[in-house]
Design brief:
493 residues; 37 strands; 4-stranded mixed β-sheet; 1 helix; 31% strand
Amino acid sequence: MALLPWGSPPANLRVTTKGDLLTFSTTPVRLAVGSNDQVLIADSSTASGIKWGSAALLSFTTIAVSGQSDVVADSATDTLTLAGSTGLTITTNATTDTITFTNSGVTSAIAGTGISVSSATGAVTYTNTGVTSIVAGSGITINQATGAVTITNAGLSSPLSTKGDLWTWTTTNARLAVGTDGQLLSSDSTASTGLKWIASPANSGWTDDGGTVRLTTAADAAVIGADTGVAGFKLDVKGLIRVGTGPDASTSRSTIVFNVGGWSDPAVNADANGDKIIFYSQPTYKVAWGMNSSAHFWFQTNTAYLWYTGSTPDLIARLDTTGLGLGGTPGAKLDVRGDVIINEDGSATADVRIEGDTDINNFFSDASADMIGIGTNAPANKFSVVGNIGLGNTAAGTSATRTLVGANGTAPSTSPTDAFQLYAADIAAGNSAPHFRTENGTIIKLHNPGTITVTNGTTDATYDANATSLDELADIIYTILGYLNTINIVTRA
């Protein structure tokens, strides 16, 4: 039976059908229920000010059962599952959109006080055998006739007065005024009636264009995994993102997991693509990141990490098990193909040190002194060497320290301006000696000639070793000068 607040209204205004709502136009009117999954939407263009329509809302929010945990929808696509139990079978019909609950275990019904039970095929009838009267309360009149009880409103008045009003409750009967066009009715425990009108998806949030779901306005933002997002971000994700069918990611950190099954190159080099950031997957190069049409780099996770730039693209660096290659594939722990600049900013504290096996200062660049040290970290000259120096690849002799070792080379054939040249060459086989080439091309050789045999000059027929005359002394000097001439130390006229 139906409780009618205005006495006995016309039949067309009675709430007689499942889902009917009683609302107000210029007079109280009945609003028939909408189609499945539709929601109630405020619309001043309709007679009642409200209508049933589609909106991207949750299929359900919370289903509460006394004494049980609440069932809460996690998303708009969450599914409520009904489960049968002992004695209860649930069947569905997709064509008629119905759910049927069938008793599959109860075989008898037991009467209680004032109730009698009779069973027939497929049905159980409960008959009142004890209740003989119904007592009316405040504002209610009761008319008993044979086989029927009619309860009539005798004092309750409707709070509805305006098109689209809804009759609801606070601590007493209350009127909820209709919202503005396009708004939706939403539950809100902070409101006095527990209900409020909110903006519809047509004005903010998400818009479904059929094939595309998008943010409705430029001011809208999407937040996933939290109630509120950080201002300024169009997409704020608190948690993991999974693309495709890649492996599961650890829930302990923020991660993007990509499908590594198949791939297609997103053409990160194409100038027409403009500024962008692109992620894509493929079996060898797991991820690519394009920073615009002229700069991007790739990561290869199975054998090496690679960085590329330019529209060619050009390999900038490669890191693999061999080492780090700058400008090419590394052939050592550090392999640089191209120019190297150290301390471009000119910092006085940016020293450079290369350590050997036992010499910690195998090479030292003292930035504050602008000097280079070999074997020392405190060079006193522009280039200071603490140890032996070799011209060529010949080791110094036993016990040698701070010794210059020159190996035989090819003598220079020309002379630079305002300079001399030092090189090593044999005086004779097995007798290497330093040679100086002066600017005018003169070769000066430094070596020990051994014993000098003095012979006559051109004046005496016989040389006397004990002679003391000036002629014999001239013969000796002439012989020595002749030898020095042969070794290019002096020139004899």
